[in-house]
Amino acid sequence: MAMSSAISLCFVFLFALHSSLLLLTVAGTSDSQEFVVELDHSNFTHFVTNLDFLIVSFYSPGCGRCKKLAPEYEKAAYILSKHNSHLVLAKVNISKQANVGLAGSDGRISIKIVRDGGKNVQEYKGPYDADGIVKYVKRQYGPASIEINTLEDAQIFLSDNKIAIVGIFPHFSGEEFENYTILAKNLRPTEEFFHTSDAKLLPQGESSVAGPLMRVFKPFDELFVDTQDFDVNALEKFVEESIVPTVTIMDGDQINQRLVDNFMYNSNSKVMLFINFSSEVAASLKYKYHELAELYKGDNLSFLMADIGVSSHAIKQYGIKDDQIPFVILLSDGTKYLKSNVEPDELSPWLKKYKFAFISFLLEFYAPSHKVCKELASVFEDLAISYQRDPDVIIAKFDIFANDILHDFEIWKLPTVYFKSADGNISQYIGYATKEDFREFIEKNRSKPADEQLDVKDEL
Ligand SMILES: *[C@@H]1O[C@H](CO)[C@@H](O)[C@H](O)[C@H]1NC(C)=O
Ligand SMILES: *[C@@H]1O[C@H](CO)[C@@H](O)[C@H](O)[C@H]1NC(C)=O
Ligand SMILES: *[C@@H]1O[C@H](CO)[C@@H](O)[C@H](O)[C@H]1NC(C)=O
Ligand SMILES: *[C@@H]1O[C@H](CO)[C@@H](O)[C@H](O)[C@H]1NC(C)=O
Ligand SMILES: *[C@@H]1O[C@H](CO)[C@@H](O)[C@H](O)[C@H]1NC(C)=O
Ligand SMILES: *[C@@H]1O[C@H](CO)[C@@H](O)[C@H](O)[C@H]1NC(C)=O
Ligand SMILES: *[C@@H]1O[C@H](CO)[C@@H](O)[C@H](O)[C@H]1NC(C)=O
């Protein structure tokens, strides 16, 4: 077996196979032919530097996800090898210590898209079934952006149920076009990019524009959005922001599922409403929830609404009983807050309470060189450690020379310690500067959330 994969490797190396027939012939010679190329620390670099394009699965034989992937990956490698000999799938066993470093600085189980002899590495963001892998890898190998020339192209590429990004340019050259191409290369693992010189071919939006203009089509909210700011970073930010719906819908629809994944993986705090989409109260809850989401959009908060019919797994995880539905959950900094039997008018006050006011602060304003401040430093350190596991209390200190002082506080002498309770009262701490005294003060003054606080697993 080692022999036969060495043979197919030689073909890739020496002949850079332009004819897929040749490879097929090799494949025909052995039933146990493996189309996925095994690499390790002894030959990885040499192999990679000779290729423009390569997919590498960094796997561990023990991981369940890897076991499930393996036969699909092998099947995809076979199909791809028939299609185009440049489409090579490889794997590296990172259970072997010497191979870990090959998977990048974090050495994680992952699939990577490796281009330009290893100079450009991107995370694989495609599907895990053979057909899905094939389609995705072909697309990754082709041009970063595809030209739309005809109405038919537009119909094929811009079906109304997916996100697609189209650059409109009078000519396919110049700085704007170059920046767009850089964007397409950067984001191609997750988004599909197109370009055209005829906006009339596009299904929506102003059709008389000549560009340069970038139009993001999306199957939700405004359906498309335009930008003319062609700075690469601005383009990237624009795409990231436009592809997050005001409210992500989890209803079992495949197209929405990708948006649910985006929702789960972004770093924002998350609000999730679980309702029965066919119940009577659904309409007014949806309406109020949308209002709320509009209000807090861009505030590092993401909103999701799930139909209980397709989220029973999540509901079980949160330990919710049928008679507690509908319910809403806020996940913020590792803490979870839940309100069951939530009514439309309760959504807004509930969120406000937790998002902006559930934390008590003890703030010390100090100057690093000040003698008393120095003495207090270790007391504050200890205090902070004792509240480390309490998500509702924050012990913070502000160097008055390094920070703009918050308007709510007046600093007359150093050090000054202020307390802000969860319901917003601010008062100056006056008392002894020992850890015990501070603790007693905090415990007396903090106001605890009245709702249930959950401690459950993060995933849905
Ligand atoms: C790389 O080295 C490993 C271990 O010697 C071997 O199993 C594998 O077939 C080699 N791969 C290639 C492409 O030469
Ligand atoms: C992967 O590496 C581990 C550790 O060296 C080894 O035990 C295992 O047999 C290897 N698996 C495969 C499929 O090569
Ligand atoms: C292209 O992007 C760069 C930054 O990456 C920016 O400096 C330049 O102004 C952009 N060009 C145009 C025409 O926006
Ligand atoms: C949702 O509500 C509808 C209409 O009230 C009801 O028929 C259905 O059983 C409910 N679904 C679930 C999963 O409770
Ligand atoms: C959102 O989060 C980022 C990083 O965590 C932070 O820098 C930014 O100030 C936050 N924005 C808002 C509006 O809270
Ligand atoms: C905050 O102030 C209000 C009004 O002065 C008071 O009723 C409430 O008890 C205070 N909260 C705490 C935690 O002391
Ligand atoms: C905290 O409690 C003390 C008494 O223990 C009281 O004097 C002070 O006003 C309270 N502070 C706040 C913010 O409620």
UniProtKB/TrEMBL annotation:
<feature type="domain" description="Thioredoxin">
    <location>
        <begin position="331"/>
        <end position="447"/>
    </location>
</feature>
<dbReference type="GO" id="GO:0005783">
    <property type="term" value="C:endoplasmic reticulum"/>
</dbReference>
<dbReference type="GO" id="GO:0006457">
    <property type="term" value="P:protein folding"/>
</dbReference>
<comment type="similarity">
    <text>Belongs to the protein disulfide isomerase family.</text>
</comment>
<keyword id="KW-0676">Redox-active center</keyword>
<dbReference type="GO" id="GO:0005788">
    <property type="term" value="C:endoplasmic reticulum lumen"/>
</dbReference>
<dbReference type="Pfam" id="PF00085">
    <property type="entry name" value="Thioredoxin"/>
</dbReference>
<dbReference type="Pfam" id="PF13848">
    <property type="entry name" value="Thioredoxin_6"/>
</dbReference>
<keyword id="KW-0256">Endoplasmic reticulum</keyword>
<dbReference type="GO" id="GO:0003756">
    <property type="term" value="F:protein disulfide isomerase activity"/>
</dbReference>
<dbReference type="InterPro" id="IPR013766">
    <property type="entry name" value="Thioredoxin_domain"/>
</dbReference>
<keyword id="KW-0413">Isomerase</keyword>
<feature type="signal peptide">
    <location>
        <begin position="1"/>
        <end position="32"/>
    </location>
</feature>
<dbReference type="InterPro" id="IPR036249">
    <property type="entry name" value="Thioredoxin-like_sf"/>
</dbReference>
<protein>
    <recommendedName>
        <fullName>protein disulfide-isomerase</fullName>
        <ecNumber>5.3.4.1</ecNumber>
    </recommendedName>
</protein>
<keyword id="KW-0732">Signal</keyword>
<dbReference type="GO" id="GO:0034976">
    <property type="term" value="P:response to endoplasmic reticulum stress"/>
</dbReference>
